[in-house]
Amino acid sequence: MKKDVKLTRRDFVKSASGSIAALSGLSLLACDKQATDPKNEKDTSPVGSLKRSNQRAIHNDLVPRRVLGKTGIEISMLVFGGGSNFLKNANGVWEPLMQKALDMGINYFDTSHDYGTEERFGEILPPIRDQVYITTKFDARDVTTMRSTLDASLKKLKTDYLDFLFIHSIETSDSVSQIEKGVYAEMLKLKEQGVTRFIGFSSMNSAVRSKELLTKLEFDACMLAMNPTTYGDFARTALPAAREKNVGVLAMKIMRDVVGNGATAEELIAYALDLEGVAATCIAHTGQQVLQENAAIIKDYAGSTYVRPDYLGLEQRIRHLAGPHALCWARPDYYDGKMC
Fold first, then answer.
1. What band does 35 get if pLDDT is binned at 50, 70 and 90?
2. Which residues contact 236 (CB under 8 A, 6 or more apart)?
3. Can you say whether residue 123 is alpha, beta or left, with left for phi > 0 and alpha for psi between -120 and 50 degrees?
4. Which of 85, 92, 211, 304 has its CA 20 to 30 A from that of 51?
5. How many domains does the chain divide into?
């Protein structure tokens, strides 16, 4: 296996400036302009049809795209995760990894204030800011801390607006009424002010509380932990509530601690993307090889001759992994920037 070529950050940013400019004119625009430009007003229209929601990228070399619920925007079905597996990439390795993702047509980048990767995004994405979608998240449940965290995130990301602002990690202990009166109300103001285009939340531990948020409040998107171990039961509990309101859904934790333990990457990716209402998978990668392999799997999945796995059999096969004994991210002391 050919190893990633290591560059200094300074050398990479200098050499990438030309290729990123070319990318914005070629690779990312290989799909039609309306589908890829976050500032295009037509992006805000509702999803047109099931056929459009499953639309593939026009250019066969690019990662296919789907419409993200009622946002109307088309995002790559492979979202670039900025969590701990991405953080494992050393300086000189993560820069070309991000460039490779851009070359593949990945146009959605996810991070959080506590991942330690907002600065990385801030070094690579600003030159093509209008060609990508960026999400960051906040852990605070009080408005003052949330605003302070958001200000710091914008500075690290080197942008004056977000495409998505998420409440990070909804838990069973969260009070929906307190969220509604506090940070949710503030998020609505930020959306009106143009600081963020869309609002949402992520959760990997409480499908019940996620369902309650989706039912009672008006979010644009959410990120839910869903894999065939059925840990948390998000696909059966929270996902239907998102579909009911056409809230855009990203599937996360689809492979971590699961792939290789009775399930293949192909099966796990297909399982997540075949869940009705899911637009894309969010995966953080260490090194380019796995990134390229997962992108190839998704392109194959989107092909007309793809054969779906036996999902019921897959669930039965790996259901024994559902819990903190096997899933490190299900442990009480876990956070997404933690190496485990």
1. very low
2. 207, 230
3. alpha
4. 211
5. 1
